Every structure is written in C-alpha cells, then in structure tokens.
Amino acid sequence: MKKDLPKIDEHNFPIIFKHLTYFIKDEVLKTGINKVVLGLSGGIDSAAACYLASAALGKDNVAALLMPYKSSAKSSLGDAMKAVKALGISYYIIDITKQIDDYFQAEKDGARVNDIKVRMGNKMSRERMSILYDYSYKLKSLVLGTSNKSELLLGYGTIYGDMASALNPIGDIYKTQIYQLAALLGIPNSIMTKPPSADLWLGQSDESELGFTYEAADSIMYLLIDKMYKPEVVVSLGYNAGIVNAVYSRIKKSQYKRRMPLIAKVSERTINIDFRYLRDWS
Amino acid sequence: MHAINILLAQINPYVGDLKKNIEKHLKFIKTAAEAGAQFVIFPELSLTGYFLKDSIYDIGVNLNSEEASVFEPLYKASLNSGISVIAGFVEKDENYNFYNSSFCISKGKIINVHRKVYLPTYGMFEELRYFKPGGGFNIFDMAGVKASILTCEDAWHLSSSYIAVNKGAEIIVVNSASPARGITEGLDKFSSINMWEELLSVIAFYYRSYVIYVNRVGFEDGIGFSGGSCIFGPTGEMDARIDYLEEGYLKVEINLDLLNNERFKTPLIRDENLNLTLKELEGIINSK
User: Given an 8 Å threshold on Cβ–Cβ distance, is A280 in contact with B245?
Assistant: First the structure.
C-alpha cells in the first residue's frame, strides 16, 4: 500500500498561498524592516519564493539579485529576467566570474579536477550569499531563503551558501510540490519545464548527481520525515530499498548543515542549549 | 427567549509583550461593547503569546500579588463597559509554579480561572517543560448560562468535555493556539483545521452543547496559527466562523431555548450513567 505525498492542488492552494504570504509579511514586518532581497537563479525555487514575496510585501519591497558566473547557462539569466519583468520588481545583475576566477587562479594547481569543481560550486554559492548579505545591509532588506524541503533534507546545498537566509517560505515544501505550487502561482513555463540544476557548472543536474529523481525521493521522504516511518517500514510499503537507504543516509549525514554550530557548554546557561528563547523574542 | 451575545476575538498577540497585548484586548472589548455583546473571548495565552520558552519566567503573573495590577485596565474596562472578558495569560503561584491559565473577568473582578490540564509535550510542543498542569474543569456563570473552559489540548481529551458537561456546562469554551499544519489534496484548509472542526462538531453534538472555539493567528518563529474561530450549536453544526489565518472578530448568539430543545429531543446527558463510568474507571485504575 503506497501513501502518497499530498499534492498542492487548486483546492488547498488558496490557504497555502495565504499562509506563506502571511508568514513573509508577519515575520519580516515584526523585525522593523519591510523589504526582502533574494537571489534569483532562473530556477523554479527562487522564482516561487520571489512570487510569494512580491504578493506578500508588494513589488516595491522585493529586490532580486541575478549573479551569473561565466559558465552559468545562458537561459538562466533570461528566465530570471522573465520573473523580474512579470512581477515588476527591482533587480541587480552582478557577475561573480572575476572574484571566483581570481581566487581559484592560485588554488587550482595540483588539485583534482573533481575537487575543484565542487569547491568552485561551493565558493560560488557562498559568494552569492556574501553579496546577498551585503545587499541586505545596503537595501535594508532581509535575505529571503529559496531552498526547498527536498534539498534541505538531502543536504543538496552549500552550508553558509545557498542554505543561508533570514527566513524561508518554501523550506517545508518538497520539490515535487514546488512544481505544483509554481504552476498555480503562474510562473513562466520555461522556468517550470527545465531539469533541476544548481547551475554551478555546465550541464550539472540535481537528479543525476543524487542518483534518484526528486519524485522518487520526495515520496520516500514524506514517509520518513512527515510520517516518521522507519526506513524498513517504508521499504515494506513497496518503495525501492536502495533509494530508501540512500535517501535516509543522505538525510542523516547532512544533519550538520541544518543546525547552528556546536558550542562547548561551559557555563550554567548556554546559547541554544538552555538559554531558550524564540528568535522572535524581542 | 433566553440568549446571550458573545464576541469571538481572533487576535495575533505580540509575543512576550503584556502591555501591548492589554492594549489590543481593550480595543476588542470596545468592539464588543459597540457590537452589543455581553462577553468577549480571546484565544489561549492571548495576553502573552504562545511559544514563550524561558521568557515564561519573566511574564508570569501572581493574581494574589501586586503584579496583578498590570491587569487593572482590563478590570476597569469590564466594569465600565459591562463586558465580561475571557483571556489567556501565564499564571504564577506563590511557589513559583507556572500555569497556562485563562481568566474570566466580570464587572471588574476575576470570577473564574482555568489552568490548562493537558499540556502537550510532543512534536513542536513543550508545555510540560514549563507549566504545571491544572487540576480540573470549573463551571462558571456566563450571563446566566453555565460554561466551562477547555484550553486547546484539553479538548483533545474527550474526558474533559465529558466532565464539563456532566458538571452542568451548557457552553464549552475552547480557547486555543493551534498551529496550521498538514496539506490534504482536495481540501481547502489545513489538515489540522479539519481535524479541529470535526472534533468540535462531535463535542457539540454528543454533549448537546454550544461549543465556542477561539483560536489565535499570526506567526511565532515560522509557526503560523490557523484562526478559524467558530461556534457549533447543539446540533453539531457550525453556525458561523471567522476567516482562517487573519485577525478578526465575530458576534455569535447562544440561545438557551434551542439548547434545551435539543437536550429534550436527544437526552444523552440525562441518560449518562455516571455510576457505571465511575465503576469502570475504578476498575481501570485498580488494574494498573
């Protein structure tokens, strides 16, 4: 008996939309700031977050940063611009090629090509984060996160890179559901139909790197995480054991990416251990 | 006709800010007066916010001490307007135990305090970490109608409404801070909302009572409360509801004639065998 990940459909979309836009409005406004800035990659996740932010705060209070590297797919910038134009939000194009290439000029010698590829990918991700946080200050805006639940759980992201943000409206929504949400948000078709990619190097594909499709992983993660079923129970329900174990292992191994750094407890009251307040405390 | 009018105040409290929340309450008391209501009911922990964690230590109020003067504006507003107020706060006793409490203020005085009995401590909830459980369910007078308060999780234990109704409650007030969660295909509300509405309907129908649900809205650290405050009549049907997720208010009418009519036609409470329940409960307790 298979239990399926629930779809975001035309029935539940209105309340999910209201919930997510209220989340952005409520959590942003209570900080005393009324704007957000986000990195717009041309992919579906950042487009969905951007549409939600624009609906929540108004187009004048959302700024998009488009930060291509020389190997970024040419369609990415075009797709990001489609979202910018459709929403009428302000945008900045900042090419990150120079700083990335300058840094790796000195680092490349002797390193294995594959290592360099991963390191460059991480560096680009953190370069973009660093620019986003600079613009956060410059534009008096909070950084809006654009990671979905699938990549957060699988650890398919760069710690302190694309995983960093002040608040994230789509972090509890699986990639499969992001497509359903995006369709109902009216996101341009070319953004919807391209294969998922971090676009850190030419031809990169999420699903070929992960070794399984998001659709397969999401239905398994829904049972492992949302339903809290043990992996063997998920397998007994008819799911592929190899994928179940690969997914579960990725989730466990990447737990560190989803938490704040460990602090050695010395005092009687330690930050985030027994000094316990909401972030919304103030 | 024996009827009373009640205003449901679905608010988004400021987390940890008693003063600002008192101001918000005063605003809604004024609204209740203008709407011709006799009562206004606020959600669980309406004066403090919900996920208070360590700040519970700072925001608790001992009703038998000087600290209670912070509520003076509410006492005055109830006295001057004639509106009775049910609101939620963090109560502290003389031994520094803290409770998730709700008081009813009428004519300038506290006439009832309910300390939440069932404190959820699982999933996202951690109430037992901070609060001491209350000891029961009181009946108090709401403009001539007998009422009892069940705070959020209290209502999930069907024994709570069983006790309240058998003690004479005609209105069950469920004040709540229920987070919105769970997507269901083909359903225009969160799964958690659906589950609540089914539960409230069951309580209203099988206990032949009015059930008034007042749930908060707003977000605390990403967790959003679903609102949807509503009233179920003794037929188990929802009479009216406030929108989900947003602040709002609603005036509802409790009609005792209709309640008595339903209780006559389907006398489930009359026929309840308390001795049987007691005997079975003793058996259960002794066998454990």
Answer: no
| A20, closest residue in chain B (CA to CA) | B224
Distance from CA of A203 to the nearest CA of B (A): 34
Q: What angle do CA A150, A258, A96 make, to 5 degrees?
A: 80
Which of B158, B152, B164 has the alpha carbon at shortest distance from B125?
Answer: B152
Measure the CA–CA gap between A199 and A211, rounded to whole angstroms: 17
A275 to A33, A34, A269, B55, B127: CA distances (angstroms) = 26, 29, 6, 10, 16
Q: Do B244 and A167 touch (CB under 8 A)?
A: no
pLDDT digits (tens, 9 = 90+) for B168-181: 999 999 999 999 99
Is the Cβ–Cβ distance between B245 and A15 less than 8 Å?
yes
Interface of A with B in 87-146 (CB under 8 A): none
The alpha carbons of chain A give a radius of gyration, in whole angstroms, of 19
- Interface check for A223 against chain B (CB to CB < 8 A): the answer is no
Residue B139 and residue B165: Cα distance in Å, rounded? Answer: 9
| Boundaries of every domain in chain A | 13-201
The CATH architecture of the domain made up of A13-201 is 3-Layer(aba) Sandwich (3.40)
Distance from CA of A28 to the nearest CA of B (A): 11
What does pLDDT average to over chain A? 95
DSSP state of B208: T
Report pLDDT digits (tens) over A53-95. 999 999 999 999 999 999 998 899 999 999 999 999 999 999 9
ipTM reported for the complex, 2 dp = 0.95
Q: Does A232 lie at the interface with B, CB-CB under 8 angstroms?
A: no
Q: What is the pTM (predicted TM-score) of this model?
A: 0.96
Q: For the domain made up of B3-287, give the CATH fold.
A: Nitrilase/N-carbamoyl-D-aminoacid amidohydrolase (3.60.110)
pLDDT tens digits along A185-242: 999 999 999 888 888 877 888 898 899 999 999 999 999 999 999 999 999 999 999 9
